[in-house]
Amino acid sequence: MKRAPFSVIISFIKRGLNNMTKTTKQFNLLDLLKKFSVLGRTSSEGVTRRVYDSNWVAAQLKYADLAEKYGLNVFTDKMGNLYASTSNDPEQGPVIMTGSHMDTVVNGGKLDGTYGTLASLVSLGELVAEYGAPKVPIVAVSFSEEEGSRFETTFTGSKFLTNQFDDTVYNITDKENITFEDARKKALDELKSKIKMMHSKWKIAKYIELHIEQGPVLEKERIPIGIVTGITGQIRVLIQTHGIANHAGTTPMNMRDDAMRKAVSLMNDIYQELEQTSGLRYTIGKITATPNVANVVPNNVTFSLDMRHLDQSILNKVFDEISKLVERHDGKLTLTTNVKASKMNPHLKSVLEAAAQNKNLDYKCLPSGAGHDAQVVSYKFPTGMIFVPSINGISHSPLEKTEAKDLINGRETLKDALYKLAY
Amino acid sequence: MKRAPFSVIISFIKRGLNNMTKTTKQFNLLDLLKKFSVLGRTSSEGVTRRVYDSNWVAAQLKYADLAEKYGLNVFTDKMGNLYASTSNDPEQGPVIMTGSHMDTVVNGGKLDGTYGTLASLVSLGELVAEYGAPKVPIVAVSFSEEEGSRFETTFTGSKFLTNQFDDTVYNITDKENITFEDARKKALDELKSKIKMMHSKWKIAKYIELHIEQGPVLEKERIPIGIVTGITGQIRVLIQTHGIANHAGTTPMNMRDDAMRKAVSLMNDIYQELEQTSGLRYTIGKITATPNVANVVPNNVTFSLDMRHLDQSILNKVFDEISKLVERHDGKLTLTTNVKASKMNPHLKSVLEAAAQNKNLDYKCLPSGAGHDAQVVSYKFPTGMIFVPSINGISHSPLEKTEAKDLINGRETLKDALYKLAY
Known about the structure:
Two copies of one chain form a homodimer. Chain A is built from twelve helices and 17 strands. The first copy, chain A, is of the alpha/beta class and 423 residues long. In chain A, the strands form three sheets. In chain A, strands 1, 2, 3, 4, 5, 6, 7, 15, 16 and 17 form a ten-stranded mixed sheet that branches. In chain A, strands 8, 10, 11, 13 and 14 form a five-stranded antiparallel sheet that branches. Chain A starts with a helix and ends with a helix. Chains A and B meet through strand 9, helix 8, strand 10, strand 11 and strand 12 of A and strand 9, helix 8, strand 10, strand 11 and strand 12 of B.
């Protein structure tokens, strides 16, 4: 897309955008992704950008700088969410919001979160450059935190914006024993010195998030665009079996109480139970035995079970069945994660489908098995979500990658949808 | 048992013991066990005495000192095995040997090895004090190493004595990167400065080892003496299943290659296969998953399988069956330990039974599921073994304990057997 400074200036004058600078610059999304990947780059070419750390501050300031260069109004809030808005008045009527998160997992990729964040800003910048101010204000957002990679809490940015934030989070400490509150204050001091603080919250009419799929479906089926139907609910539990530690050689079989034997039998029954339920995704990803020595009968085995389904009632039913199964096996179950399933807005879904069609892009409607800010926002506001393919389905890894043309296709689809909704 | 210094002196003169000092002292076994438990005591009241470390050197020197005080001839060899002998000539015809090992596991108890080592020395000292020199020379031994707690090698003391030592051991390094050879040399320099070095090896007529059971059988059945029938063969393998790591939420079930699911199915089949074989002891004690994260499908699961049986042909057959099973499950099996089953000598077994009867002690013939120096020696020479009860079957732990009266009963039974064999 060509830069159009003169037409932009004319368009600004025509539409009378409030307080927007009258010159704008355009940026290449792929270049931007490269530049942001340096902020927290790891030795293995991954990215570690944890909320409120120095790389995170640098990235949010860079985002603000870009937004200003696009001639947008820039705001931050108490959490350090960044907003690039066509409106200079946060109190103004409902806005169309689009974006993703700026933090990463430890040694993650350069696309998860950052792609949607930058693609939203670029799309908005281009729309304004081409068409001037929208009828409905558009706000691009760079959420402060989604991954939970620094503090044992997730989605704090979108939760704060949508009034789902729990104040106990302020006291959570990271590995260096720094509280969320102290880290937040220090980072906010840096942001506030350059960015306008907003003390109200945006009224959200609609939210659209663009993200990499982080799964293999689109790539395997060679489909460039995914339209998300809903985000699966997730229940994660830790299951323990107990026994008595004893010498593997000297303890007769009939005098043993073997936690591993119990665990294997229970895990086997869990798999058999869960494979009955269509649409369920289930994973035993983590296991530890104590004392975990080849010649000692284990006295404890602990394993995780992660279950996800688009239909919350089915997920709840499965959880009940597993609870009973664990009880029958004399095990112990602890619920560690419980995120409710969410449905994307049907109207927004059809807008996104039309946008893909408009761009001549094949698309597929599919659920998201991973959590996203869109999930948190969708509990409160109409939400839609676009996926682009992930090569080999890999994410949360330095190997995370998406073809350049797919990155562009995603941005084009988003831009088309935003235009339809706001202009 | 009373000290009898005068009769001992007379007895020495009558029997004409070569080079034995003419005054002897007697020691209390329980006191000695306490004193040796200080050499390597850990913060949790356990004992860590690894071969050739400073506590090990101190313990062997203390053993030598005791032996000298008993008026016995003391020798060491290239491995640092200590011998307390009624004969001053190692070239002299076959001897009756009795003892155990001086090293411990990391944070082990004060009885495993040390009990048999000290009880043998005390029994021999008392026999000589009471009855003078035996017809057949008796040698008490304190083997240098059995546990493998410093270097990845076990039984080096008894293997060296019985010509089963593998020279590649010299190059094995410990965690501080010190070679077995360097550690050995340094420790031997200290021993040699005080103890006579022998360059030949004892000709062994018979070997008897006294040890704690390290299992629950004798204590549960309230029987003070165990006569070991044989030591189980042990085959230990590592089994691996492979898959592809993927996101637990975004990867549909039909696109997964889940190493945990394969491992659970395989472990379940292994248990079902192994429970068919009577007399087999089998343990899955150790398991690790990679990357071992709750929301990632594991790409690798590795678990140990330890199998023991008194009958080597049955053990071999079971191993073959497991190998086939692992192959059918597309797993990978690596043999890590293969210790052949050994049978105790029937004549020595009957001598030990008679000794227990003579002491009015109830006894039970039982297999040993743990490895012992007696196992190594038995491949070459007639061997017998006595067990005393372990409270709760606990061993390799600071909680390892045996009632005082049981410790005394074991020593009395050994002493009686030695008398019958040598006088």
